[in-house]
Design brief:
The chain has about 350 residues and is mainly alpha-helical. The protein has two domains: about 80 residues, no CATH class; about 260 residues, ABC transporter involved in vitamin B12 uptake, BtuC (Orthogonal Bundle), CATH 1.10.3470. The protein contains 14 helices and four strands. The radius of gyration is 22 Å and the shape is globular. It is a multi-pass membrane protein. Keywords: Cell membrane, Membrane, Transmembrane, Transmembrane helix. It is found in: Cell membrane. This is ABC transporter permease.
Length: about 350
Amino acid sequence: MLHIVKKEVPKTREKIIVRLSAVLAALAVASIIVLVAGANPLELYIGIVQGCFGSLYRFAATIEKMVPLLVLSLGVLVAFKMRFWNIGAEGQFLMGAVGTTLVVRLLPDLPLPVMLVLMIIVSFLFGAVWLMIPAFFKARFGTNETLFTLMLNYIALTLVTALQYDFWKDPAANGMPKIANLPENALLPSAGGFNLSILMAVIIVLAMYYFMNRSKIGFEIAVLGESENTARYIGINVTRTIIIAALVSGGLCGMVGMMQTTGVSGALSTEITGGLGFTAIIVAWLSGLKVPFVVVNSFAFAVLLQGASYIQTAFQIPGSVAEMIQAIILFFILGSEFVLQYRLVSDKTKSEVA
């Protein structure tokens, strides 16, 4: 019988070789799907590169997809570093967008600088509170945060649905279930296809690198993630650390709601997240919960998303084919992580090792 055994920490060279091999194998398998769809695989892959870097507009679209994924992944990273499994980034994203829209509805005539600052603060707080609810129950009663945060996603989605179809429904939308677009004084300034969210993301990356690697609370989060008993032994306030980590994690995810509402969609809707909250979980995990790798992997995923979107239009292939290509590449990348972390051994080999 075969058994799955944990391997020693792989060397950097091995990681690079395995991951590159996974990508090449994924492209080879995806080529079969492309051929069946009646397209030339080589031209299609060149098209993906062109769709991401072929012009300033396309590159801006790639960065536009990277920014929310990057900030969401950093938010997830904080919680995961503490072994607090925040599966609720989608809900925190939505609640941040709700807070953003609420500010505009209550104070529609504020000047742009004041409006932006207020929206950032409120979106952060809305996302933070949405995660602090399960964090409190986890710290106080030991509840399962995975299920708790997952269920809160659906509550947030139901709330936004109610706002879109009833309470905040735009009377000027001719009966369509739509929330009114934000006014000009509530939209992120942009130039050449790039908006202010890029600068915000850069600041967040630098702040999070310092927070996780240089600050006292970052150290406490890491220790708590390794062992709660060790954390208590050296005098770390476990409840306080959990709450602070939840505040930062949920707050960052909430801020993405503000970035997307004011910089991309222009209005709150149930489709605003696009599933990025779940993708961020994969990005954070593949990055080994390290900030620099989150930046790299977020960009790689953005290239994948933008490239798939472009080839769907440029090559007139069905959207399902583009999604299958994405899924195959992602599957092989995840599989490579298994190869790096584990190995299969037989009963005989296992007994010899033991």
